[in-house]
């Protein structure tokens, strides 16, 4: 089989998967399906490899090339087939609006009706229904993005006005990716809801995907949409448009905004009927993505590439671009990121298109945020490790069950600082830190205070968090309500209910977590962060305070 024949075979399969019936010219039957792709169709300017018909009218062409062919120059060839179309063949307009160039491995698409028609890489072919709908519209999405009305600024901070204006300029230039960097607490989610409303109302975006890092952030985002009062209409966002927070693997066809985690989205694309919701409570920082193989994605006709016009990735500094890149790039969408601290990988993924840069220092100067002070508590074994002499009994704890058994040391046990609270637990070290925190709280850290401020302690893992909770309650002489653990392994009370209490109620005064309520979780009364683990990433440090 020749290379071009092998490519045609793959292209036939890809067209069929997207809902096209592929036919030879001599077997032409326009009534076979809504969408028909006719091989080797003679036109005035030559023979098109595939001529696409929707509802018996020609809408576009596909130019096929052997694997390995670079496609940028092929657009000129496919473009010749779109003009000078035979008068005896029904067609939607002239020139035909849609052109594909493909090798079966790589596919490019462009819409000639765009203000500046530009080829873009797509994962697969669009469905016939989509091309039919697009061809019936008076103008394209990219054209509509150039003519958004002026922004109503009432209720918006200056930084939010700047972010929306810059992002909409990026849309008008048809930049496929854009990154908004705004300091924690400056209102990134409200900014996003504001421009999503404009995209749906004025640009007629079909559907927007809002990707969150963890399920509790999805619930928080849903509340933002539910509480958002539209500036020109006066009604709530959810009174005008359906917003779905996915708790199952079924996409509501009438939803205009879909909120989910990338883990669940991958599960849906993989065709899994359901996904374990408990896995969505765990942060991406709990894994080492560079040790895992990137997720492969195949075309799913139930979720075609045109399902979303826009994708918003919240907390996009997280390490998703190695594992989950194909999931993001599956859709033929604009991709927009929200973060307080972009990493180099984040900037690279968003093509260095940083449309807004609003640092913590600017936020403090604008009185949007408040400054911070660092108070260090040092212990010798935290920095140097320690040892236990031979002849002493130590208790060994099972990592999974936490069951203890006593063992007599026959040799000296020496441990490094890095082993602390991992393979070695030193309760006295935890107790020393908590005791100093308690004793200095009202004299040096928050002088003059009488009530313990809302405090969040970051532990190394769930077992470490468990130890800290018990010692905090004991050292402060308080009951269970005073200090609670909030991790994805929390049982009894739901983590989301404890977060709500931490946010809205007097107790708990102190919460202990690993990652579950780190970056992105909105807890305005929080005043104090206590790191009982090393934070080696500057990105992670800044997003936590």
Structure description:
- The chain is an alpha/beta fold and 545 residues long.
- The protein has three domains: 3-124, tt1808, chain A, CATH 3.90.1570; 142-365, Rossmann fold, CATH 3.40.50.300; 426-544, Rossmann fold (3-Layer(aba) Sandwich), CATH 3.40.50.
- Strand 20, helix 16 and strand 21 (510-513) form a beta-alpha-beta unit.
- The longest helix has 19 residues, at 427-445.
- It is elongated and about 90 Å long.
- Helices cover 30% and strands 20% of the residues.
Give me some keywords for this one.
545 residues; alpha/beta; tt1808, chain A; Rossmann fold; 17 helices; 22 strands
Quick one: CATH class of the largest domain? Alpha Beta
- Compute the gyration radius: what is it? 28 Å
Major pleated sheet: 7 strands, mixed
* Coarse structural class: alpha/beta
Oligomer: single chain
Biggest sheet strand order reads: 1-2-3-4-5-6-7
SS strand fraction: 15-25%
Mean pLDDT: 87
């Amino acid at each position: 089989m020749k290379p071009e024949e092998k490519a045609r075979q793959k292209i036939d399969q890809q067209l069929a998967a997207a809902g096209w019936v592929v036919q030879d010219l001599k077997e032409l039957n326009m009534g076979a399906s809504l969408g028909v792709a006719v091989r080797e169709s003679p036109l005035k300017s030559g023979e098109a490899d595939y001529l696409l018909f929707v509802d018996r009218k020609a809408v576009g062409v596909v130019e096929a090339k052997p694997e390995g062919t670079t496609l940028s120059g092929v657009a000129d060839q496919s473009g010749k087939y779109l003009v000078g179309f035979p008068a005896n063949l029904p067609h939607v307009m002239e020139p035909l609006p849609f052109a594909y160039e493909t090798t079966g491995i790589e596919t490019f698409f462009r819409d000639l009706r765009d203000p500046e028609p530009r080829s873009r890489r797509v994962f697969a072919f669009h469905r016939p229904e989509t091309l039919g709908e697009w061809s019936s519209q008076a103008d394209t999405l990219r054209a509509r993005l150039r003519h958004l009305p002026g922004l109503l600024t009432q209720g918006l901070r200056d930084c939010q006005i700047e972010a929306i204006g810059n992002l909409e300029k990026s849309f008008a230039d048809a930049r496929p990716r854009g990154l908004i960097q705004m300091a924690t607490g400056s209102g990134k989610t409200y900014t996003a809801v504001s421009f999503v409303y404009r995209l749906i109302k004025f640009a007629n975006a079909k559907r927007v995907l809002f990707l969150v890092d963890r399920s509790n952030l999805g619930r928080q985002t849903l509340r933002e949409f539910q509480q958002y009062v539209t500036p020109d209409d006066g009604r709530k966002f959810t009174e005008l448009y359906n917003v779905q927070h996915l708790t199952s693997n079924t996409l509501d066809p009438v939803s205009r905004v879909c909120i989910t985690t990338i883990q669940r989205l991958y599960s849906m694309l993989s065709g899994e009927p359901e996904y374990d919701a408990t896995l969505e409570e765990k942060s991406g920082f709990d894994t080492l993505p560079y040790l895992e193989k990137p997720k492969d994605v195949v075309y799913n006709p139930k979720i075609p590439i045109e399902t979303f016009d826009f994708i918003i990735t919240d907390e996009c500094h997280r390490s998703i671009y190695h594992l989950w890149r194909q999931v993001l790039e599956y859709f033929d969408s604009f991709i927009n990121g929200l973060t307080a601290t972009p990493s180099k990988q984040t900037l690279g993924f968003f093509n260095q298109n940083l449309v807004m840069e609003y640092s913590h220092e600017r936020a403090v100067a604008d009185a949007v945020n408040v400054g911070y002070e660092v108070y260090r508590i040092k212990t010798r074994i935290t920095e140097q490790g320690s040892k236990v002499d031979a002849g002493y009994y130590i208790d060994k704890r099972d990592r999974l069950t936490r069951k203890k058994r006593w063992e007599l040391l026959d040799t000296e046990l020496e441990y490094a600082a890095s082993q602390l609270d991992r393979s070695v637990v030193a309760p006295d070290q935890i107790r020393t830190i908590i005791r100093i925190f308690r004793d200095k709280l009202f004299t040096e850290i928050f002088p003059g205070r009488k009530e313990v401020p809302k405090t969040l302690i970051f532990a190394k893992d769930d077992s470490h968090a468990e130890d800290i909770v018990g010692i905090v309650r004991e050292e402060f002489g308080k009951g269970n309500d005073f200090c609670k653990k909030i991790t994805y392994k929390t049982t009894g009370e739901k983590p989301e209910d404890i977060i709500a209490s931490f946010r809205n109620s007097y107790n708990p005064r102190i919460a202990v977590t690993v990652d579950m309520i780190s970056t992105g979780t909105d807890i305005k009364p929080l005043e104090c962060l206590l790191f009982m683990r090393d934070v080696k990433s500057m990105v992670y440090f800044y997003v936590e305070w």
